[in-house]
Amino acid sequence: MTTRRLIASMIALALAIGIVQILVWWLQPKRDNRMDAGPPRSGYTLHDFTLYGYGDNGKLSYRLQAPRLERREGDDSLYLNQPTFLLPPKNGQPGEPWTGNSDYGWVSAKGDELKLQGKVNMHRKAYAGAAAASIDTSDVTAWPKQNKVQTDAHVAMRQGTATMTGVGMRADLDTKHMELLNDFHGTFKPSAQKRR
């Protein structure tokens, strides 16, 4: 009789474990299989390319060149390695374009926002009424249609004989209006023409 009770107890225990397992499978939330997919996959990859972005008026807003571009599936944004860029004056404004490079880049799906990531160097040649200028910083966000840029990183700017440094910058590249937001230091030497 003890053997029968032991066998009956084992069968009852096995049934109870089976019922509990079925309840766990039935009640647990469903897994999202996309979580197992790993990092985003590239929709396509380009090597040694040039990308042109145009404004609503059909004028060039920016030009990007890089050794590698990846378009990610799902968000249609573009990821760039070591891009060089050109940001021309908008709407026929006088002046020279800003050119430069960064370690990495990102372009929004609509092409209206750029992120120049890592170390960023920007340069503009001299033209009538404005000396040559350069900006050294990192992690710049640019809105090429408005020709505006900003960063929260350290900035060093040189234009003619003036040098300025600070942390955080907001700039309108067409109006030549620049704000350094924190820890500003500047040196403004007179030009050689004014000393005579």
TrEMBL record:
Keywords: Cell inner membrane, Cell membrane, Membrane, Transmembrane, Transmembrane helix. GO terms for molecular function: glycolipid transfer activity; lipopolysaccharide transmembrane transporter activity. The chain crosses the membrane at residues 6-27. InterPro entries: LipoPS_assembly_LptC-rel (IPR010664), LPS_export_LptC (IPR052363), LptC (IPR026265). One of its GO terms (cellular component) is plasma membrane. It comes from the Bacteria. This is Lipopolysaccharide export system protein LptC. It comes from Oleiagrimonas soli.
